[in-house]
Amino acid sequence: MKTIKTLLFAATALALGTAAASAHVTLETQEAPVPSTYKAVFRVGHGCEGKPTIKIRVQIPEGVIAVKPQPKPGWTIEKVKAPYAKSYDYYGTPTSEGVKEIVWSGGSLADDEYDEFVLRAYLTGDLKPDTVLYFPVVQECPDGAAERWIEIPAAGKSADDYETPAPGVKLVPKK
Amino acid sequence: MRRTPLPASARWQPLAVLMLVLTATALLLGLGSQAHAHAALVDIQPADGAVVAHAPQGFSLSFSEPTSPLVLKLVRPDGSSTVLDRYTLRDATLDIIAPADLGTGTHVLTWRVISEDGHPVGGSSIFSIGAPSAGGLVAPQEAVDWPLRIAIWAARTLLYAGLFIGVGGVFFTSFVGGGTRPVQRTHAVLMLAGLAAVLLSVGLQGLDALDLPLGSLVAALPWKTGLATSYGLTAEIAAASLVAGLAALAVPRQIGRLLTVLAFIGIGLALSASGHASAAHPQWLTRPAVFLHAVGIAFWAGALLPLGVAFASRTSDATPMLRRFSRLIPVALLPLVAAGLLLAAIQLASPSALWTTAYGRVLLAKLVLLAALFALAALNRFRLTGPAEAGDGVAAGRLARSIRVEIILVLAIFAVAAAWRFTPPPRALAEAAARPAELHIHTEKAMAEVTVKPGHVGPVSVGIVIMTGDFGPLDAKGLTLVVSNPAAGIEPIRRTATKGADAVWRVGKLDLPLPGRWQIRLDILVSDFELVKIEDAIDIRP
């Protein structure tokens, strides 16, 4: 039994480890039901071509409401609010405006260090299951350098076809 | 059947295998869905776009994470490529040993590496040893249709003779003198020959434009085409001038004079209506220059036959005619020479073109003949004119002989100048070489006008004008130009464009080392979170 446990642990660590080494900004949880509350963990594995990351900007896609970023020591959070394209139902309350962009700034994440930026949001029932929801992310570094994980794959293409794809989460129907 | 108890380890084996398979599957899924670890290039030596004094001993590529090379290639200035197989990996840095035999010019270091996750990444970097390759200018080699070429040349020579000696002669005789019957008959013959030549030349011009053989002259198409080219106008004016010159011989003196003036002006207008020299810029300068050059030639060449015949036959008006000619010739000669020098300077663009280009060599031949002509003219003017005017019979005879040689020289000059029809001037060659390559990309999201200047291999600058898909203004935050040549195995070369005050995005330092089809991609950063990529191919000349 111990052998299996060790094997399983090693395999999991290996699988996670490989994923964590990803150079792209990605989401930890790759699948989420709609409607539901989703904890988005943005994993930042490197800076901009060697430079440290000093700002992370996440654009909140349409249909995602009640956004709450998780405070992060050493980083200041800015919540950019704007009206939504339409009114969304949040447990019976119509919601027509809210956070459209979250900005983490003031910190410095070295190129050879790893960190996570977390927010929690409600994925409304207006989002279609069996699609991928993308959160465009801009990673800014000193001297105007930036990495923009903002490419949203066209129909029939996957994130693999792009050089700088936006992190995405696959939406599934609620069980 | 007796069952032997399995050892404990063996009992777990199927389960372990199953776990391994599951793990591997999970791993693969994990890789497919999220682990896109594209290694980013952090540093490269020599730097992209660098010009280094000496051939580097090696190249080094530093990535954001460890990689292993798939393809490492060096494209040399002559377009050949060398696989770089001597390299060492030092953490995330790839050190490549350069081939020993690197020459001067522009090189492309092109790489394709695979990072930890198995995602290949490619890129190219350009550096030059000594100086960037200028890019060879290879003139297109076309088969020459000699019968057609000789016909065009002969027609042109005849046209020059008809215009300059024929019409010029009629003008001279009606204002200065010497219009005896044999002289006018010769003028008429020359003008008729010129008229036939100019009419024929329209068809020949059409053949040349359509790239048809001489035999196709019976069809209507070459004639229509010839008239439609810029030469059509020249031919029309020249024909009108020749007809006016011929008519002047048959009408009363006063009307004849008016006709010869019109015919004389027609010479200048005809030649300035088309041709290499008139096409050169600035046209406000070149066209009047061609006009002055042409009428100057006509005055000088037109005087030769009447003067020569007058002295040969010792007519009484020979001496006063010569005196009037001597007074007038500087007025014609000065603009003629000045205009000729100006045009030559514009057309040659550089002094070395005089012997390095076909155009220059024709000019050189013409200059040699001109030198002889001027020497003869000077001899006539300063050694023979005086005694001849004073009634010296020997001098008059010499003058007549000298003028005969002058006529031969003038005809030879016409023949040489007619050869210019086939030699594009260096100015035009330079303009053709500098012609930009252009590309229009139109997609739903954005459109772009891309201008690569010059449109041939070597250092180029790129200008990009972008608009939205429905022709609206597109105020992008950034623009990256990505060029690649998949056929030649050159991986993408990236350049950040900068926006000028005129809203044109520019990339100044780019080397396109190979001719052919290059893929051009524009990454337009519309807003912080929106990137639009549009691409198409462009042809780069050798």
From TrEMBL, chain A:
YncI copper-binding domain ranges (all copies): 24-171
Keyword RNA-binding: no
Keyword vocabulary terms for this entry: Signal
Signal sequence, renumbered to the chain: 1-23
InterPro entries: YcnI-copper_dom, YcnI-like_sf
Protein name, as recorded: Uncharacterized protein YcnI
Automatic annotation (TrEMBL), chain B:
BP term (GO), one: response to copper ion
Transmembrane residue ranges: 158-176, 188-207, 227-251, 258-278, 290-313, 325-346, 358-382, 403-422
Pfam families cross-referenced by the UniProt entry: CopC, CopD
Annotated membrane topology: Multi-pass membrane protein
Positions of the Copper resistance protein D domain: 321-420
Native species: Kaistia hirudinis
Single GO molecular function: copper ion binding
Coiled-coil residue windows: none
Protein name: Copper transport protein
Keywords, sorted A to Z: Cell membrane, Copper, Membrane, Metal-binding, Signal, Transmembrane, Transmembrane helix
GO CC annotations, alphabetized: periplasmic space; plasma membrane
PANTHER family reported for this sequence: INNER MEMBRANE PROTEIN YEBZ (PTHR34820)
Signal peptide: 1-37
Cell location: Cell membrane
Major localization listed first in the record, in broad terms: membrane
Domain CopC: 38-129
